[in-house]
Design brief:
heterodimer, A: mainly alpha, B: mainly alpha, about 70% helix
């Protein structure tokens, strides 16, 4: 990366930190620190909610996923708008009416202290581990691409976030989100325009889509119901709905965002905005990935996109075998390139028969190329069984750093840092809020003044920040921790959502019944996971339904006084 | 306490119906998009 790119990167990151600090100057009370003074207008609520959900991996994984598997991932978000409606109808009015700081505070008002403490603890466990991964996942990719130590990338993300989150709390987080999302959207639009611009002169946007479509990269909708297929219309609508309801309704990372709305109306409109924009946004990011795939039909792609892994295997005794496969891959690319150029000419001449023939040849070449790539991955595995053989997260950054102009590369790298910082900042603020409001203030120091709690919240934010950095530092040594944290989330999210749905919809059920129903449901969810009956995403649905079902059964078994 | 009205579509039910209709139309457009380019 050139000096100008480094300058753009450094200035962009510094701008965000200074902007967050400047917008939160003069902060004096807990309302400002935890809920941004409950002053945000709807568009600000919507953007801060979207920035919290869109981690760096959103901008790295999604284009890579479209590049390798097509655009079907967008279906995963179909349940989100429906969840937004349920949240607007039920969750937001109650949270606002009770003037709570955290979602778990509501559970004590509705049930009892132990149900609140149980739910808050489950959240702290899950979110602290996830936040570490939110830092680690982009840090490893950026370290490989930038050629710097992963310790440096982890520390850059972690320390910058701690600085403005500790100084300005929710106020700094929300305002920095506004600027972050502005930069991110501008950068992604420019990236989309650049991909099309870099294609051969006779290939336009629609032509590129026709090529991508013929190569099965525009498979947005899959109507077939299949429990083993993670991304189809039905899993997206049902599984995605429960996941979004759990995440937005019971995870303080998100609840803290929309409770900062200045009124019920502003919070609701913020979530409506999220419901309307999220699906098109994901579609657009995935489409960039599909267009990058088309770009690599006209330009030689590497056989494997992670340069660190490629260097490692090339320096081993299996290096010659890998290089031989690399040459075969280049030869196949020459054939594919001829077919791709033929397809472009056929499209220009509007010759459908010639286009179909060229596309068939292109697909045949792609199949051969994939076979060679699989052999190369087998060599990588043979050299190092622990090597990361999924290179989809590296596709977009490889493309950016090899073909984009100076200055633009720095901006695109900054976008990844900003996305990581935005999601991590919300997580830290939520961890600190929950620790102070649900545990410290409620159980440990009950009657201190505002200044004491504000100071405590800042120290607790630092402590969680350091903890998340430590998790990020160890994540690489613990192998597939990313998947483990996703599974951990699915193990607990369903139960937490079940507790909230009982609170909202089953009015006659009391605290003790819900508490024991949650414990039994959690044990059953863990058993189901252990027996490996369904894909882990379905555990969200099962956990939620189990809590509600068991609570109803326990309640019906209770002796009742008919004259009461 | 009377519920605040949304700034458009007169009622919140109207806003929620719009969100669901937009989702249905989006899925339909994506389906046609998939079919057109396959």
């Amino acid at each position: 990366m050139s000096a100008i790119d480094w300058l753009v990167l450094a200035c962009t990151l510094l701008l965000i930190v200074l902007y967050g600090i400047w917008k939160s100057r003069g902060l004096k009370n807990m309302d400002s620190f935890l809920l941004a003074n409950k002053s945000l207008p709807w568009y600000h609520v919507g953007i801060t909610v979207m920035a919290t959900q869109a981690s760096a991996i959103t901008f790295l994984s999604a284009p890579g996923q479209a590049y390798s598997q097509g655009m079907s991932f967008v279906q995963f978000y179909f349940g989100l708008p429906l969840a937004m409606v349920v949240l607007c109808v039920t969750f937001i009015p109650i949270f606002h009416k009770l003037k709570v700081y955290t979602a778990y505070e509501f559970l004590e008002k509705r049930f009892d202290m132990k149900t609140r403490a149980l739910t808050a603890s489950l959240f702290l466990l899950q979110r602290s581990l996830s936040n570490g991964i939110t830092i680690y996942a982009p840090a490893i990719i950026l370290s490989v691409i930038l050629g710097v130590s992963i310790h440096h990338t982890i520390l850059i993300i972690g320390i910058l976030v701690i600085i403005y989150t500790v100084y300005g709390g929710s106020q700094a987080v929300s305002h920095s989100h506004l600027l972050q999302m502005g930069i991110i959207f501008s950068g992604m639009f420019m990236a989309g325009w650049m991909v099309v611009h870099l294609l051969p002169g006779n290939i336009g946007f629609v032509d590129a889509l026709k090529v991508a479509g013929k190569m099965e990269k525009l498979n947005v909708i899959d109507l077939k119901f299949d429990l083993n297929n993670r991304y189809n219309l039905w899993s997206g609508l049902i599984g995605g709905f429960f996941l979004a309801l759990s995440y937005f309704g019971t995870d303080q990372t998100q609840v803290g965002r929309y409770l900062a709305g200045s009124s019920v109306t502003q919070s609701r409109l913020g979530l409506v905005m999220n419901g309307l924009l999220k699906v098109p946004m994901q579609f657009f990011i995935l489409m960039i990935g599909a267009l990058v795939f088309v770009y690599y039909q006209y330009n030689q792609p590497p056989i494997f996109f992670n340069p660190a892994v490629v260097n490692e295997v090339k320096q081993s005794e299996l290096g010659p075998q890998f290089e031989s496969l690399e040459k075969d891959y280049q030869l196949i690319y020459q054939q594919k390139n001829s077919s791709a150029l033929a397809a472009a000419i056929a499209l220009e001449q509007k010759n459908n028969i010639a286009f179909e023939e060229a596309a068939a040849n292109l697909n045949a070449g792609e199949a051969t190329a994939n076979t060679i790539r699989k052999e190369a991955i087998a060599v990588i595995k043979q050299n190092n069984a622990k090597a990361d053989v999924n290179d989809s997260n590296y596709v977009f950054l490889h493309f950016v750093t090899t073909v984009f102009p100076v200055g633009f590369i720095g901006l695109l790298i900054a976008i990844i840092f900003l996305a990581a910082m935005g999601a991590t900042a919300s997580g830290l603020n939520a961890l600190a809020s929950t620790t102070v409001v649900d545990i410290y203030k409620r159980l440990l120091v009950k009657d201190a003044d505002e200044k004491h709690y504000l100071t405590a919240t800042r120290w607790i934010t630092i402590a969680w920040g350091v903890f998340c950095i430590i998790i990020a530092e160890f994540a690489g040594r613990l192998g597939n921790l990313i998947e483990a944290v996703n599974i951990l989330g699915s193990l607990f999210y369903g139960t937490i959502l079940g507790i909230f749905l009982v609170a909202f919809y089953l009015k006659k059920i009391k605290g003790a019944t819900t508490f024991y129903a949650a414990l039994i449901a959690e044990a059953l969810v863990i058993l189901i996971y252990y027996l490996d009956v369904v894909a882990f995403l379905w555990l969200n649905v099962i956990g939620c339904l189990l809590v509600m079902g068991i609570a109803l059964i326990i309640d019906s078994l209770k002796p009742r006084n008919s004259y009461a | 306490m009377e519920e605040e009205k949304p700034p458009f579509l007169r009622s919140w039910n109207g806003v929620y119906s719009m969100v669901i209709m937009v989702l249905v139309i989006t899925i339909l457009v994506f389906y046609l998009f998939t079919k057109y380019f396959e």
